[in-house]
Fold this sequence. Notes:
- This protein is α+β, with helices and mostly antiparallel strands.
- It has a single domain (2-73), classed as lambda repressor-like DNA-binding domains (434 Repressor (Amino-terminal Domain), Orthogonal Bundle), CATH 1.10.260.40.
- It has helices at residues 13-19, 24-31, 35-42, 50-59, 64-67, and strands at 2-3, 8-11, 68-71, 77-78.
- The strands form two sheets. A two-stranded antiparallel sheet has the order 1-4. Strands 2-3 form a two-stranded antiparallel sheet.
- Helix 2 crosses helix 3 (35-42).
- Residues 13-67 form the HTH cro/C1-type domain.
- This is Helix-turn-helix transcriptional regulator.
- InterPro entries: Cro/C1-type_HTH, Lambda_DNA-bd_dom_sf.
- Pfam families: HTH_3.
Amino acid sequence: xxxxxxxxxxxxxxxxxxxxxxxxxxxAEKVGVSKQTIFVMEKGNYVPTLLLAFRIASFFxxxxxxxxxxVKGSGQNED
Length: 79
């Protein structure tokens, strides 16, 4: 049985990065991932691990909830 609740995580990585006047490559190097990871995260096509989410929040010196927001789905299950 597969659970498909439709939950997601939205983020403000792009906004924080632009305000810091950083490139995707620079941020990627600071938090230990590839530029591609930052790119797909900013597009909403990648949900970071908890470790990476906390690393990004720590880099920007904000609470993780300032950058990442849990979006609750429908709560339906698929068989």
